[in-house]
Amino acid sequence: MDYETACRLLIDQSDDNLNADTFLARLRQDKSPVPGQVTSILLALKVVSEGLKGQTHIDRNLANALFLLSSEGRRLFDAGLRRSLDCPPLLNEDLERIAIAVKTIFSGV
Q: Looking at residue 20, what DSSP letter applies?
């Protein structure tokens, strides 16, 4: 996966349009992510992190997508737990990995 493809994937997966089958849309609809969806997001985050090394600016659309994937993803997951929804066992850890990767991108570390 190249940098541009990774950015596009992250921006697309942060779209929470209820008609979409994106990561956030599925969480908003109380559905589990599509198999491989989180893996693709984590791979894209790694590619973006590498691509932004040494950069001092992040595209606004990409920054928004990163923020939404980490914060809104966690919020939707926690809301589902409060409603006693059956969540995939590793989704909590996956959301933590996403948050760590986003923090790494923003901090440049």
A: S
Range of the domain at 10: 3-107
- Give the type of residue at 32: S
Residue 11 tokens read as: 């921006």
* pLDDT number for residue 18: 65
Three-class DSSP category at 65: helix
The number of domains in the chain is 1
pLDDT averaged per 10 residues in sequence order, the chain, 109 residues: 97 85 91 92 97 92 96 90 77 95 92
First to last CA, the chain: 21
**pTM attached to this predicted model:** 0.91
CA distances 106 to 30, 52, 58, 71, 91, Å, are: 29, 9, 8, 14, 22
Count Cα atoms within 13 angstroms, Cβ side, for 98: 27
At residue 47, the 3 state secondary structure works out as helix
Widest distance between CA atoms in the chain: 43
Integer Rg of the chain from CA? 13
